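As the next step, I needed to go through one protein, both as residues and as discrete backbone shape codes, included below for the reader:
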Amino acid sequence: MKYLIYTTLFFLTVSTSIKGQVSNNIQIKGELEKWHTITFLFTGPSCSETDFRPNPFLDYRLEVTFSNGNKQYKIPGFFAADGQSSETEALSGNKWQVNFVPDEIGTWNYSVSFLSGRNIAISEKLTKGQPLSPNGLTGSFTISPSDKKSPDFRTKGRLIYTGERYLKFSETGEYFLKGGADSPENFLAYHEFDNTPAKHKYENHIANWKTGDPVWHKDKGKGIIGALNYLSSKGVNSVYFLVMNVQGDGNDVFPWADIDERYRFDCSKLDQWEVVFSHMDSLGLMLHIVLSENENQLLLDAGFLQTQRKLFYREMIARFGHHLAVTWNFGEENGPAPWYDMLGQSVAQRKSGLEYLKKINPYPSFIAMHTLPSDPERTDRLAPLLGFKYLDGASLQIDKSKDVYGEVKNWIKLSADSERKWVVNMDEIGPWFSGVFPDSRDSQHDTIRTEVLWPTLMAGGAGVEWYFGKLDLTTEDFSQWSNMWDQTRYAIHFFQKYLPFWRMQNADQLITGTKNCCFAAVGEIYTIYLPSGGSTNIQLPSGKYQIKWYNPRTGGSLLDGSIKTILGPGMMSLGNPPADHQKDWTILINRNK
């Protein structure tokens, strides 16, 4: 079984109550610890992926309500074939599964609802459902503190949207800055997943797989697991991928039993995805789950929120919503694109889909939407969603690097003015054919660093992901961008270590130089980015200030420049950097307490 391969688990067959009767048709699998995934495996009706009526994905509805004190979660379940299909490739069985992540220690109670009926999985009229065993089953279990260590997300808790510019871990209170991989978008088109076109092998990363890491079928998965290990070792903390690109650029990733199927899912493939996603949790890698792309946004129900779309969203949430750090991206390049003679989803369709996604997700996960690369299309699609309570952020695509700083500032301000602040990420830099070149072609990545990476963070953006242009769909070796991962890590390290960035604001008005960037908690701490080097002046209130310099090209420790301290108030010169005056530098200014 896949669980035995990649983690230590407790298997409990618990005696629980169904209307006064004793039942043994449940297994609880997992470490009974806070923030750990606990799998509830129920014995129910025997079904197959191929069943027409009843369809196990559509005509049954499993939900388990978990409660601890005042907290209560209603978690959707799913048909799990034989309960171990990642290993057996089973199409049929009598196992039904719920994945739950407790966010409190102590005793949790649970109550099972299991109903059958036509389209009951997506119905709002549950009174018409027919109860089936294990409906009515109740029980309890006890949760202890987690024993994991960083970077495992289980040490930090769930990453949630709180109404502010940055996502926050619910256990530690730590704010998150993203530095991720946006390519390949067809990351899941991996040759050792069941029923999947063999586009990716990640062979060079097999060497990054370690003894004890997960596999399935005894030795499958080493390439994709090794790739994730490599990314994590470089400080990457997010990976972007489509879970459905049928009729899209890759046409090689789909969760269903067949590429032309829309109502029945591939249990073994999705179980194998879960092995990979669980490993991502342990590595501290956010799942950036993209639900559609421009070419297929109308594939399900012509873009409307009807049976196919509701079922797809529900199955994805039921199977993967428990993961601690998830971006649910409504769609890549959502909306009609000027380069295609085809329609796209309307504002009303976007809003209904976003609302449904938010309401069926039992956890407060982050929901964003990816944009078209330029205006007026980008603004036409995003602006009507400002203030909409079911969208938490913007996943920006920008075709020209010189526009990044202004666009990130613009959407942060517009969303703040709408009374629903967005988490704004710079997720795809253009132009489409280049994106970020490999180190072999652009060894220093000066343009990306000076016009995209640092400006995004200095504008108040929540992070970046890197897209690889024409190499997107064929990316096999992430080490080709080694220096880009390093430079991203240097930037995020600076913000995380030296700045209370979550309470700082863009403050360009305080400094000289039209291309320079300032980010500040005025009167307390300031950071200035000089993309072309040199120096700048800053307007400061009264007080004594310490000046340090940071090298964004190589990272490392803070350094002294030509001026170490200044005394305000007034417009003050900050002097010159320690070396390489014509290259980019970051300045840190702290007021003495």
Summary: Residues 2-143 form a domain with the Immunoglobulin-like fold (CATH 2.60.40.10).
